[in-house]
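Quick start: what a row looks like.
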Amino acid sequence: MAQIPRTVYLINEVNLAVRARMERALREFELTVAQYTVMSQLVQPPKDGRDGISSAKIARARRVSPQSINELIVGLELRGLVARLGDPDNRRELLVSLTRTGRDKLTACDAAIDKVERELFTDLDAETHKRLRDVLGTVIGTIRRTDES
């Protein structure tokens, strides 16, 4: 008797395929998916008017250790893609932000990732694509809410 694949299995299969496509697309920019994701997070509009995000906040959002994020940020900093500056409100904390070079590279990477996304979802009409995004957003919200409790 054939068993219907679990939804979490299907999500994982999609994740693996998407990640592989993204890695290939980012290779020409000498960035990994993790580096690209962190750089993308740095362009989020600041909620408190400050430019930059603490590495601890990035680590929490990426669900990785602060040490892992620090290594990634140091690598990006050595390449001139990000800068770390002291937080005026907390002298012990450094805020990470994109440099001009980092913003330019991110813009080029975004175009490559946009192409990957168009290819992956080419068989979905606009309404189905929107519904998929809505469902995934709901699942992500559930995960974040249950992780916090």
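That is the whole record. The longest strand covers residues 90-98. The longest helix spans residues 126-148.
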